[in-house]
Amino acid sequence: MRWMAVLAWICGAAQAGPVPRLTLAEMADGSEYIIEATVLRSWTDWNAADQPIWTHHELSVKEWLKAPGAASGRSL
């Protein structure tokens, strides 16, 4: 089975609140990018102004499944 990462940015998703329940098809339709990737590393970070803690992920993209325009050689 092929593992795919569905990257979706929903307006307001950056703010704390309930996460909408979406089907896989709805997530795919609403996603700008869909990739197959491996997570190389993850880390958390925050700034001195006590803003929310962010979790970052460095990915190695194996295949671009959905992307606007030519995505060859792009990195996230």
Briefly say what this structure is.
The chain has 76 residues and is mainly beta. It contains one helix and three strands. The two termini are 24 Å apart.
The run of helices and strands is EHEE
Radius of gyration (Å): 14 Å
Quaternary = single chain
Q: Which parts are unreliable, with pLDDT below 50 for 5 consecutive residues or more?
A: 1-14
- In DSSP terms (H or I, runs of 4 or more residues), the helix count works out at 1
Give me the count of strands. 3
Described by the principal axes of the CA atoms, the overall outline is extended
Strand content: 35-45%
The major β-sheet equals:
3 strands, antiparallel
Query: Level of helix content?
Result: under 10%
Number of domains: 1
What is the distance, rounded to the nearest whole angstrom, between the alpha carbons of the first and last residues? Answer: 24 Å
What order do the strands of the largest sheet run in, or round the barrel if closed? 1-2-3
Structure classification: mainly beta
Mean pLDDT: 76
